[in-house]
Amino acid sequence: MKKEDKASYQKCKEMCKRGDCPPLLVKFDSHEGFVVEADGFIKDLTIVAEYTGDVDYMSKRENDDGDSIMGLLFTDSESKDLVICPDKRGNIARFVSGINNHTREGKKKQNLKSVRFDIDGEAHALLIAIRDIHKGERLYYDYNGYQNDYPTEHFV
């Protein structure tokens, strides 16, 4: 991560510790389950959330029934690939919806991007706004931003 980007990341972490976070609201949708909406304006390129949870080897989680596992680190050997598992410890990021990346309409919904960074030798997954997001908009990102392993054709 560039020095300037690391400074922005650190400032974001400090702001969140003070309670100065992006305006987000978790809601229950009878069709989609728990979802996240903007509770105020979110500017383009804002770090909306860091995807958090326990980090484990993908090979240990292949038969896991968790629906919120995110790929963190992809290597030449699948036995060394790492994932984030927010089932025991997580945050609001686990409720952000995925897009149906098999349809044009689904792709148009995307307003966040999942980006991986090396910060002081540790891998981090950040959800970053890719455009201005207005109050009431549901938050979406492409679950297959790095690999096409996640079946999304049934997403609305």
Automatic annotation (TrEMBL):
InterPro entries: ATXR5/ATXR6 (IPR053114), SET_dom (IPR001214), SET_dom_sf (IPR046341). Residues 22-144 form the SET domain. It holds the Pfam family SET. Gene3D superfamilies: SET domain (2.170.270.10). Coiled coil: none annotated. It comes from the Eukaryota. PANTHER family: SET DOMAIN-CONTAINING PROTEIN. This is SET domain-containing protein. It comes from Ceratopteris richardii (Triangle waterfern).
